[in-house]
Design goal:
Blueprint lengths: L3 H31 L9 H7 L4 E9 L5 E8 L8 H25 L3 E9 L3 E2 L3 H17 L1 H6 E9 L9 E2 L2 E9 L11 H12 L7 E5 L8 H9 L6 H6 L2 H10 L6 E4 H5 L13 E12 L2 E5 L6
Antiparallel strand pairs: 1-2, 1-10, 3-7, 3-8, 4-6, 5-7, 5-9, 10-11
Helix pairs in contact: 3-7, 4-6
Length: about 325
């Protein structure tokens, strides 16, 4: 006879799997709604995008000490295309964990740090000029990093690029950087503090333009139960183009966006944030887990259903 305790354990296992599949399902549905594949020239790449995430393989494992059951997603037919909503979400989760690990390392090394969000923009350009505009932005950021004020204040950074804005006109682009800056915890009390006007002046000089570029800078603070470090890791992981922005693009503009953004890196580290080895507090001893079975799930009619076969995905 099955005890109530064992029933609760089984319910928890099923709930954990359901929550995992729920998140994946959400992004699969978004991907189907946006339907990027139809906006590209039909080829092998668009075919891979069309079926992205349609097959998933989980490992069901048991902990030899606690007897806890876990399921790990270990494989799937993901397309890894930069604008795929499913793959953008997966990449964001991976980068978020890495950023959090690096921030923990730096925070411990300096006995505490402060964090800033810095958004750096340039005026809109035709989407056909996106690649050259991003190059200009990157060179400007390098000049900003070489300024005395920046070097005195900033220990390290990660920047994410976004190619469009909420109100970008058709056939235009609005590339801009979302930056997370690590500064000493004494930053707001000492002479290396940079106020809003000084940040604007620094960015204008770095851009080498004759207009005042729009910027935003603010201190990262805890959000509810989240520490400032966790909030920072979540916030800086930006999508290069959001799903809502993708839906607004014409087929011609999307194909131009695809062409212009090839080989452009989404995330760039610098300084101590680049060199830091991530510190994770949830490292598992994998030798304590035994494999019970492999589980396969197939996408059909708007949901994932378990398949009963043992061939690889």
């Amino acid at each position: 006879m099955t005890s109530s305790n064992n029933i609760n354990k089984l319910e928890l296992q099923d709930l954990q799997l359901a929550e995992s599949l729920k998140k994946i399902t959400l992004h699969k549905l978004i991907a189907e709604k946006v339907n990027i594949a139809k906006m590209l020239q039909r080829d092998r790449r668009s075919e891979h995008i069309q079926v992205c995430g349609s097959m998933l393989q989980f490992l069901k494992e048991r902990n030899l000490v606690s007897e806890e059951i876990r399921r790990r997603l270990v494989k799937g037919n993901f397309c890894k295309y930069r604008f795929c909503p499913m793959c953008q979400w997966r990449m964001a989760r991976k980068v978020c964990r890495e950023v959090l690990g690096r921030l923990r390392t730096i925070n411990e090394a300096h006995n505490g740090v402060a964090l800033l969000f810095l958004t750096l923009t340039i005026k809109n350009e035709p989407i056909t000029e996106l690649k050259s505009t991003v190059k200009h932005l990157s060179q400007a950021f390098q000049r900003l990093q070489q300024s005395k004020q920046y070097k005195d204040a900033v220990l390290g950074s990660i920047r994410a690029i976004e190619f469009l804005g909420d109100n970008t006109e058709q056939s235009e682009c609005h590339p801009h950087f979302h930056c997370l800056l690590v500064v000493r915890k004494s930053y707001f009390k000492k002479s290396d503090y940079i106020n809003f006007e000084e940040w604007t002046n620094l960015w204008q000089r770095s851009l080498r333009v004759n207009y005042r570029p729009v910027i935003n800078v603010q201190r990262v603070k805890p959000k509810g139960k989240m520490s400032a470090i966790v909030a920072a890791a979540l916030e800086v992981v930006k999508y290069s183009v959001t799903s809502s922005d993708l839906e607004k693009l014409t087929k011609e503009d999307f194909q131009e966006l695809d062409k212009q953004t090839r080989n452009i890196r989404q995330y760039n580290y610098s300084g101590e944030l680049k060199d830091a080895e991530p510190t994770f507090d949830d490292i598992e001893d994998e030798s304590l887990w035994e494999l019970l079975e492999e589980e396969y799930y197939q996408w059909k009619n708007g949901q994932y259903s378990k398949r009963k076969f043992n061939s690889a995905v």
